[in-house]
Design a protein that fits this description.
The chain is mainly alpha-helical and 121 residues long. The protein has one domain. The protein has 5 helices and 2 strands. Strands 1-2 form a two-stranded antiparallel sheet. Strand 1 and strand 2 form a beta hairpin. It starts with 11 loop residues before the first strand and ends with a helix.
Length: 121
């Protein structure tokens, strides 16, 4: 794996209520929290109605705020006062930004592993 190039994700921005919000790459220490929230959100979005999405946001408000705390540059008050639907939209943007990074990194990782495995044979 000596030739492995490590990718460093670049933060992206979205606009929420006329203000730029930076979407941060997920850190390893928050990967479990992010993974649970992202998996639940993706499962929900597979055929959910608007009412179900709003119910999810209200039921999981604390979890959404916690994920947005570590994946955006929103302050405490901004996270507390976000409308539920906006919090869900923001999490969708965070998942999209991070999954784009994972998707671009995955082929390089697989190629490096295959090279390492075949050279050890």
């Amino acid at each position: 794996m000596a030739g492995l190039n490590i990718l460093f994700p670049v933060a992206q921005s979205v606009t929420v209520d006329g203000k730029k919000v930076k979407l941060k790459p997920v850190q390893l220490q928050h990967f479990d929290l992010y993974g649970k929230a992202a998996a639940a959100l993706i499962q929900l979005l597979n055929g959910a109605s608007v009412a179900q999405i709003n119910q999810y946001a209200e039921k999981h408000a604390d979890e959404l705020r916690e994920v947005l705390k570590v994946t955006t540059d929103l302050g405490w008050l901004a996270r507390r006062t976000l409308p539920a639907a906006t919090a869900v939209q923001l999490l969708v943007a965070v998942v999209g930004a991070n999954s784009g990074f994972f998707a671009s990194a995955l082929p390089d990782m697989v190629e490096s592993l295959n090279t390492a495995i075949s050279s050890s044979d």
